[in-house]
C-alpha cells in the first residue's frame, strides 16, 4: 500500500493538488530541507505500528471530544493560546489528522495541529499536505515539539494496542511532559472502521500533584465505550464486543478478581436484565443497560447526550 493512496489529485487541508510523482518529490524536499534539524535529530521513542487507517475511522472520537470538553479546543488564554492538538500515530497516510483539523477548526479556526509518526516514509508522504497551521513530524512518545511549543490535547488511537502491557506506564509518563496542566489525552483502540471503540480519558494534573494508581502526571478521568448503532448492532447488542477494543492497561486484565472483569460481568447482566427494552430499539436497550449498571453502583454518566449518542462513560474514582 502506498502511504498516500487515495489522495491522488485531491485537495485536502489546504494542500496543493498535485499528482503522486510530484508529491513524492515534494515530500523528499520537505523532509530533508524544511523540517527543522532540531526535530530530525531526536530519536523517536517507540516502534512503527501497522498503520492501517480508513476515512472517518476516528470521526466518533472527534465528536466525543467536541461534546466532552469543547472549551479545551477553544481556550485562548495563556499558555493555551497557541497550544497544539497532537494526533499521535496517524498511520500510513494523514487522513485522520486532516479530518480532525477540519472538524476542530469549526470551533477554533486557528487551532494548531500536529500529526506525529515514527515511520519516516509516512512523514514524507504527509508533508505535502502541511500548511501554516497543520504540521507533520517524525516522532514517538517523545513528541517532536519545537522550543516554546505546548500541547492541549493528544489523541493516540490504535497505537499502544500493539505494544506490551509493560510499555503502557512509560509511554504515559513520557507523554505527560508535553501536555499543559488541565489538558487531555484520549488513548484507546477502535475496530477497523471506528464503529466500536474504547478509550482512556486522561487529565494532565498540576505539577506536583499525585497521580491515582496511574502513570505519573495523569489522572485517569474516565473509561469511555463508543458504539455506532447503525453500523454495529443491526443484529443485536453484545457487551462482550467491547472487550477487544479495551486500552492496553485493561485488555489483559479481563480475568476474575480484576475490577474490569467485574465491570464487564455486571454490564452483561445489566444488558440481560433490560433485554426486553430492545423491542424499542438497540439505542434504547443500550441506554437501559447503562442505567441498570449505574444502579449496581458504577459511576456512569447518564446524561441523554451520551447514551443516545452511543457513548457509555464510566467515571473513574
CATH topology label of the largest domain: Rossmann fold
For the record, the CATH class of the largest domain is Alpha Beta
Strand order of the largest sheet: 3-2-1-4-5-6-7-8
The radius of gyration over CA amounts to: 20 Å
Low-confidence stretches: 1-18, 26-30
State the major sheet: 8 strands, mixed
Round the mean pLDDT to the nearest integer and report it. 87
User: Quick one: how many beta strands?
Assistant: 8
Number of domains: 2
Share of helical residues: 25-40%
Tell me the distance between the termini: 44 Å
CATH superfamily of the largest domain: Vaccinia Virus protein VP39
Number of helices: 12
Overall outline: globular
Task: Please state the oligomeric state of the protein chains shown.
Answer: single chain
Q: Which CATH architecture of the largest domain?
A: 3-Layer(aba) Sandwich
Strand content: 15-25%
Structure description:
With 317 residues, the protein is of the alpha/beta class. The protein has two domains: 206 residues, Rossmann fold (3-Layer(aba) Sandwich); 65 residues, no CATH class. Helix content is 32%, strand content 19%. It has an eight-stranded mixed β-sheet. Strand 1, helix 5 and strand 2 form a beta-alpha-beta unit. Helix 1 crosses helix 6, helix 3 runs parallel beside helix 5 and helix 10 packs across helix 11. The longest helix has 15 residues. The N terminus is likely disordered.
Draw up the topology in text.
Elements: H1 20-34, H2 37-40, H3 59-68, H4 70-74, E1 84-88, H5 95-104, E2 112-117, H6 120-126, E3 134-138, E4 151-157, H7 168-175, E5 179-190, E6 196-204, E7 218-227, H8 229-232, H9 248-251, H10 259-273, H11 282-295, H12 304-307, E8 311-315
Parallel strand pairs: 1-2, 1-4, 2-3, 4-5
Antiparallel strand pairs: 5-6, 6-7, 7-8
Amino acid at each position: 500500500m502506498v502511504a498516500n493512496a487515495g489522495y491522488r489529485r485531491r485537495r485536502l487541508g489546504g494542500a496543493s493538488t498535485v499528482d503522486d510523482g510530484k508529491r513524492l518529490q515534494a515530500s523528499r524536499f520537505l523532509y530533508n530541507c524544511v523540517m527543522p534539524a532540531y526535530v530530525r535529530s531526536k530519536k523517536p521513542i517507540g516502534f512503527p505500528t501497522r498503520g492501517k487507517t480508513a476515512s472517518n475511522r476516528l470521526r466518533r472520537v472527534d465528536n466525543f471530544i467536541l461534546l466532552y470538553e469543547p472549551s479545551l479546543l477553544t481556550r485562548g488564554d495563556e499558555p493555551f493560546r497557541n497550544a497544539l492538538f497532537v494526533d499521535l500515530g496517524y498511520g500510513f497516510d494523514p487522513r485522520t489528522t486532516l479530518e480532525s483539523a477540519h472538524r476542530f477548526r469549526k470551533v477554533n479556526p486557528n487551532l494548531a495541529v500536529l500529526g506525529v509518526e515514527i515511520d519516516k516514509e509516512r512523514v514524507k508522504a504527509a508533508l505535502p499536505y502541511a500548511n501554516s497551521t497543520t504540521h507533520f513530524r517524525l516522532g514517538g512518545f517523545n513528541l517532536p515539539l519545537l522550543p516554546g511549543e505546548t500541547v492541549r490535547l493528544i489523541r493516540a488511537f490504535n497505537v499502544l494496542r500493539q505494544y506490551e502491557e509493560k510499555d503502557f506506564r512509560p509511554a504515559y509518563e513520557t507523554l505527560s511532559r508535553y501536555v499543559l496542566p488541565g489538558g487531555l489525552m484520549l488513548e484507546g483502540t477502535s475496530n477497523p472502521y471506528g464503529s466500536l471503540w474504547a478509550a482512556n480519558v486522561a487529565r494532565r494534573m498540576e505539577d506536583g500533584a499525585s497521580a491515582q494508581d496511574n502513570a505519573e502526571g495523569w489522572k485517569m478521568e474516565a473509561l469511555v465505550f463508543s458504539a455506532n448503532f447503525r453500523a454495529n448492532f443491526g443484529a443485536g447488542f453484545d457487551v462482550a464486543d467491547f472487550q477487544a477494543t479495551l486500552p492496553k492497561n485493561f485488555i489483559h486484565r479481563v480475568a476474575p478478581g480484576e475490577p474490569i472483569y467485574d465491570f464487564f460481568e455486571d454490564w452483561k447482566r445489566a444488558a440481560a436484565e433490560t433485554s426486553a427494552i430492545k423491542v424499542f430499539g438497540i439505542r434504547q436497550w443500550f441506554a437501559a443497560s447503562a442505567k441498570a449498571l449505574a444502579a449496581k453502583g458504577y459511576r456512569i454518566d447518564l446524561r441523554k447526550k451520551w447514551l443516545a449518542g452511543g457513548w457509555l462513560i464510566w467515571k473513574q474514582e
